Amino acid sequence: MCCLGTVLVNNMLGQQDRPPQAPAAQPFKDHFSGLAAQYSRFRPLYPAELFEYLAGVCPRRERAWDCACGSGQASLPLAEWFESVVATDASAEQIAAAPRHPRVVYSVAAAEQSGLEPASVDLITVAQALHWLDLERFYGEVRRVLRSGGALAVWCYGRLEVEGREIDAPLQHFYHEVVGPCWPPERAQVEDGYSSLPFPFIELQAPSFSLHTEWSLAHLMGYLRSWSATAAYLKQHGHDPVAPLEALLEPIWGGPELVRHIVWPISLRCGRPAP
User: Fold this and answer.
1) Which CATH architecture has domain 33-158+196-207+266-272?
2) For 111-129, what is each residue's pLDDT tens digit?
3) Which fold has domain 161-188+212-261?
4) Is the pLDDT of residue 41 over 80?
5) Domain residue spans of the chain
6) What is the per-residue DSSP string for the chain?
7) Which of 11, 62, 155, 162 has its CA at 20 to 30 Å from residue 259's CA atom?
8) Is the pLDDT of residue 106 over 70?
C-alpha cells in the first residue's frame, strides 16, 4: 500500500491543490466526451496485480501521473500505491465523470502539455489511450516530467471474450462486421497490442495480465454503447446498433440476473528513459 504523505484534495477544477494549468493545446481527437457518463459507469476495472507490479518498478512512490485518464479507471487504483496521483485528460466531460478520491487531483490538460513541473513524477501511466496521442511530443513530455529512475507504463486491452460460444459468436460478429467499419484507424494499434507503436525507452520485461469481470447482459450492452465505434455508427446510420444484438442475446443469456465471465487480454509496455 502507499506510504503516508501529503493528502491532496481533489476538488473540481479551480482549487488550490491542483497542478499548474497547462498551456493551450491543439485540438485533440475527441471520441469520448459525449460518452463520458457511460464510460465511467460501464468500463471494466483493471486487475490489482497490475498496479502492484507498477508500484514495484518505482524506487519512489511519491507522485504518479495518470495521463489521458478518462474517468479515472487507472487513477484510483494508483492512489492505493502512491502518495498522490495527478490525473489529466483533454476532455473536461471525462474529468467531470471521474469519481473523487482524497489522493487524486484531476485536471484538464493535453498529454503533450501536462502543466506538470520538470522531474516531478515517479510513474507515468497511459491506459487504453496511447494510440490517440502525438507520440513524439508526448514522449518529450515524459522525459521532461519523470524523475530519475521513474518509469512510463502504457497498456491496452483488446477484444473481449464472453463465456458461452452462443453468446460470444454474435458479439464477435458485432465487433468485426456491424460496427467494425466505424472503428477509427487507431484501433488497429490496440489490436496489435501497441507492438507497432514506437517506444523509445529502455523496456522492462513485464509479466502478462488479463482483465476479468462478471457482468449481466444489461451491463455488457452498456459497455458496447461506450465504444467509439458504436457512437460513430449511431451518428452515421441514425439508430442504435446494440439494440438488435441485445434482442438476439436476451433469450439465450439465461435471465437478467445471470452474470457471465468476460476476459480481455492486457498488452503492457513499461520502460525508463535512457540515462
Assistant:
1) 3-Layer(aba) Sandwich (3.40)
2) 999 999 999 999 999 999 9
3) Arc Repressor Mutant, subunit A (1.10.10)
4) no
5) 33-158+196-207+266-272, 161-188+212-261
6) -PPP-PPPP-PSTT-TTSPPPPPP------SSGGGHHHHHHHSPPPPHHHHHHHHHT-S--SEEEEET-TTTTTHHHHTTTSSEEEEEES-HHHHHHSPP-TTEEEEE-BTTB--PPTT-EEEEEEES-GGGS-HHHHHHHHHHHEEEEEEEEEEEE---EESSHHHHHHHHHIIIIISGGGS-TTHHHHHTTTTTS---SEE--PPPEEEEEEE-HHHHHHHHTTSHHHHHHHHHHSS-SHHHHHHHHHHHHT-TT--EEEEEEEEEEEEE---
7) 155
8) yes
